[in-house]
Amino acid sequence: MPKRKAEDVSEPAQVAQEEEQEEKSEVQSSEGSEDDASDSPSFEDEDEEDEDASSDDSDGEAFDSVTVDLDFAQPEEGDFLGLKTLLTNYLDGEKYDSSGLADLVLKHKEVSTIIRCGEDTIGVTAVVPLDTSVPSLKELQRFLQKHAKTHAPKVKELFEDKSSQTSLLLSERLINCPPDVAPAMHSALLEDLESAKLKIKNLLVVARAFREGQELIYTQPETECWHKQATWSCEFNCAED
What we know:
By secondary structure, the chain is of the alpha+beta class. The chain has eight helices and eight strands, in the order E-H-H-E-H-H-E-E-H-H-E-H-E-E-H-E. Residues 1-62 are annotated as: Disordered.
């Protein structure tokens, strides 16, 4: 059963740092394995591998590798349609002003990063202030209050209490976008937030996850980090796919 999670992450720096640490540990582990292999070379194994490779080539079963260039950049006006496509299903398939939310990302491009593959926009990470005078954000508030009824007062506080200084953290990617890009995107976002010097006490995250028994399975690796750092969170059922 798919779930939507609404989380209030009060310390964005910790999330980015945790993701960076996880990425570094993987790199170090990989380098250690290469060192161990270089200490004990086996020419016999190499010959066998060459023979296997030749056999595969002759049988036409060799595997091809594909290199894809991804470009990280600030969004521009030309990215509007790509952003709108990424944000269309943000409210679990419910119709809302996705064009307005895409415009909002472009308006706050100094704290937004997109991923381009060729001319296609395949991912976005952005922070936008919660302003209920903006139709798309008002629709988001109604969506959360409708589906997370027991937490409606908290949602109302985050959206309408100016002293909470809450902003919305968006992180949307196409399903075939490599998850490895998450640490780099959030590191870039952290740098952008520091440069912009925005007054933010809380970040509101709306993310999708799945439950299998008592286990919560996150669709994006960064969602687990947000959940661990959140000062408040709730979950509710979303539409069946």
